[in-house]
Amino acid sequence: MSQTKPVRITETILRDAHQSLIATRMSTERMLPIVEKLDQVGYHSLECWGGATFDASLRFLHEDPWERLRKIKDKAKKTPLQMLFRGQNILGYRPYGDDVVEYFVQKSIANGIDIIRIFDCLNDLRNLETAVKASNKEKGHAQIALSYTLGDAYTLDYWTNIAKEIENMGADSICIKDMAGLLLPYKATELVTALKSAVRIPIQLHTHYTSGVASMTYMKAVEAGVDVIDCAMSPFALGTSQPATEVMVETFKGTPYDTGYDQNLLAEIADYFRPYRDECLESGLLNPKNMGVNIKTLLYQVPGGMLSNLTSQLKDLGAEDKYYEVLEEVPRVRKDFGECPLVTPSSQIVGSQAVMNVVAGERYKMVTKETKDVLSGKYGKTVKPFNPEVQKKCIGDAEVITCRPADLVPNELETLEAEMAQYKEQDEDVLSYALFPQVATDFFKYREAQKTKMDASVADTKNGAYPV
Ligand code: CO
User: Fold this and answer.
1) How many domains are contained in the chain?
2) Could you tell me the pTM of the whole model?
3) Do 260 and 313 belong together in one domain?
4) Which residues touch 151 (CB under 8 Å, ≥6 apart)?
5) In angstroms, what is the span from residue 181 Cα to ligand 1's centroid?
6) What distance in angstroms lies between residue 468's CA and the mean position of ligand 1's atoms?
7) Over the stretch 315-341, which tens digit does the pLDDT of each residue have?
């Protein structure tokens, strides 16, 4: 090997790492002191926004996610900032009108995002069109992520054909998003080799350590020519998070894939996060159960997060003894639903329906609203057709949608603006409200109350008293 091709790294410590290990609870205050050092490493990008971070900062941390983004941008002058975006669902759980999607993309880029990673839980590219176009228009980097999954339909031909479509859609790069850690090392060789010969745009790989194979998978993928890999600084790496940044950097040192990153600088960054990891372990926020290898994800092809959801649903129903029956029902439901990938929100929908099928003692005797919506085409098109008998049993003769689902969602920005006008302090507030109406309203009230408190203490100071 004479040609050198340094592999690039996206650092996930500010987004996926803490979403996967500590329920997305890292605060802006915790992040800011280390951003300048992270910026010096020379990362391909710093993933710091989107996914569950938006909801968690409003709901649990009483923080404005837009302000977090601006503050990070202020300190990360060189490194592109990256976010995760759920296609037409943006960062929420329902499809939004095109005007909301466009405005969200516009404001994300205006506030500091450079790379938008966009995915759909069914890999229905029509659900990504609006976000990709908006991103192109705002001169952002539009990356389309393919939700990686296994099954008869997911052949190398399937992946290369969809990759070509993505390139033609105007995406700037492709990510293989392996949320469950199912991509095995030698399969990664095959997949990356096939994709690299099918398209010209860069290929990035995102996986989780859940099943224990992730760093080997990265090694094979890098040897096969993958351009970028997603890693997390060691204090919040492994387990349900990503492979450790320092380990991958050291692995490729002196090879044609050498990142050139400074290990001393990485060590300083790890030193910053380590005491916080200890704190999280002590408080129970970081559960040692999430840090080992969960081999069940490989056996049942179910993401780690979905396994813990199933356990808690069964516990609520007093049916914990049905755990293994439900695990065996999951792939059958998935098959009935056109063999869809299992990622938010399809993972929750398939999981809940599997629980109902087992607990009710008859398949599809009880059906969730979301199951009906999936089988009516409201989430989009699946790789294989739905099971017609199941479809009939769940939705009867109701109409099945075949168009792009968002074509049936009218523009809604004006209505949303009118609903929240009394709370508006910045343009972006309407977008927080659009995604999480109740949670955002609570946050706006909290913000108002904080301000009143501050004004009162300033008035007190003027009167010669001390602020409390
Ligand atoms: Co992830």
Assistant:
1) 3
2) 0.94
3) no
4) 334, 339, 383
5) 9
6) 43
7) 999 999 999 999 999 999 999 999 999
